[in-house]
Amino acid sequence: MSPQKSFRTPRPGGAEAGFLMALASMSAVQLGSALTVPLFGQLTAAGAAGLRLGWAGLLLLILVRPRRRDFARADLLACAVLGVATAGMMLFFMLAIARLPMGTASALEFLGPLAVSLYGPGADRKTWAAAAAVGVTLLTEPWRGSLDLIGVGYALAAATCWAAYILLTQRVGDRVTGLKGLAVSMPVAGLLTMLVATPTLATRLTWPAAATMLGLAVLSPLVPFALEFLALRRLTSSAFGTLMSLEPAIALLIGLVVLGQTPGLLSALGIAFVVAAGVGATRTGGRPDTEHAAPAPQRVPDPSASPAASGH
Questions:
Q1: Measuring CA to CA, how many Å separate 181 from each of 73, 112, 166, 302?
Q2: pLDDT grade, residue 298 (50/70/90)?
Q3: In this structure, are residues 93 and 312 in contact, taking their beta carbons and an 8 Å threshold?
Q4: Whole-prediction pTM value?
Q5: Residue bearing the bigger pLDDT, 176 or 49
Q6: DSSP assignment, residue 72?
Q7: Which of 4, 45, 104, 287 is the most buried (most CB within 10 A)?
Q8: Within 10 Å of residue 17's Cβ, how many Cβ atoms?
Q9: Above pLDDT 70, what percent of the chain?
């Protein structure tokens, strides 16, 4: 046994377990969204987003208990701005799935992280960008004239917020240890979305609905972040990012099973193009100095620092 191997942290289950954890994380995110849709009639999309993020922020404050002395002033500001991006990502996505099938909304939202992955020169990047463009065209079918422009706008706004979320989590994850950054950004996101939702919830909220949203907040985002943390101890970030590219397809499947949303042939083909673009961009866009470095106990990846982390 080499000296290097003797200092490695055991990773029970290896890559196979990491794959299952990442798959479970994405499934929890999309299942949480699908189960929220039936509550839109009572709470509205904004109210559901506000309660989900509000509960998640409160639970993280209780569980992690971040302290002011743990943060430099600039890092605390970055966490707050990350909270704004998180709020926009959740709120706009909820508004999008109120108007669009889940698979379509998820594929359009995925253009945010895809754009971050595609940023930079190279012929391969242009190929994946073209594949994504074809996918979006097939998804939206502009030639039919029945496109819900408002729903598409919400999904693209969520994509923009997700791109900002990725860039901000990279900064926060590099500067703040553990889940402390998330324990600040999530309450900020919850507060902002609750401010937007309060006028609606004032006359619509009931105790059963509040309890249901508490359960959905645990299902997503709390459980997915825990699963991502465990998965990232077993997978390289490039492998994890490639798996996350499957999320639009998972959204389509869950939308079909839970909500009965049957996609047309062109929509399904469009999602396949977006997934292929995401897989290709991630596999060719990793950082060599981090992707192939030997893992060590003192450098356990942080889920809040993952550029592919799920934001719902």
A1: 13, 22, 13, 11
A2: very low
A3: yes
A4: 0.81
A5: 49
A6: -
A7: 104
A8: 16
A9: 82
52: which residues sit within 8 A by CB, 6+ positions away?
32, 36, 90, 213, 216, 217, 220
C-beta separation of 37 from 45 below 8 A: no
Contacts of 307 (CB under 8 A, 6+ apart): 113, 116, 166, 169, 170, 237, 241
SS3 76: helix
> What digits encode the pLDDT tens for the residues 150-208?
999 999 999 999 889 888 887 887 788 767 888 899 999 999 999 999 998 988 999 99
Determine the Cα–Cα distance for residues 245 and 119; give it in Å rounded to an integer.
Answer: 16
Tokens 């619509």 belong to residue: 204
Residues in the chain: 312
Q: In angstroms, rounded to a whole number, what is the distance separating the alpha carbons of residues 231 and 223?
A: 12
| H/E segment holding residue 199 | helix 180-204
For the cut 80, the answer to whether the pLDDT of residue 271 exceeds it is: yes
* Closest among 91, 272, 107 to 165, alpha carbons compared: 91
306 Cβ neighbours under 8 A, 6+ residues apart: 169, 173, 228, 232, 237, 240
How deeply is 57 buried, as exposed, middle or buried, from its count of CB atoms within 10 A (0-12, 13-18, 19+)?
Answer: buried
Long-range contacts of 120-127 (CB under 8 A, 24+ apart): 120/285, 122/284, 124/280, 124/284, 125/281, 125/284, 125/285, 127/280
DSSP structure class, residue 147: -
pLDDT reading at 65 higher than 60: yes
* Amino acid type, 171: R
CB–CB of 91/139 below 8 Å? no
The C-alpha atoms of residue 7 and residue 13 are separated, in whole angstroms, by 18
Q: Are 50 and 272 contacting, i.e. CB atoms less than 8 angstroms apart?
A: no
Could you tell me the two tokens for 174? 């590099």
Cα–Cα distance between 193 and 93 in angstroms, integer?
12
Q: Which residue has the tokens 């639009």?
A: 248
294: confidence class by pLDDT, cuts 50, 70, 90: very low
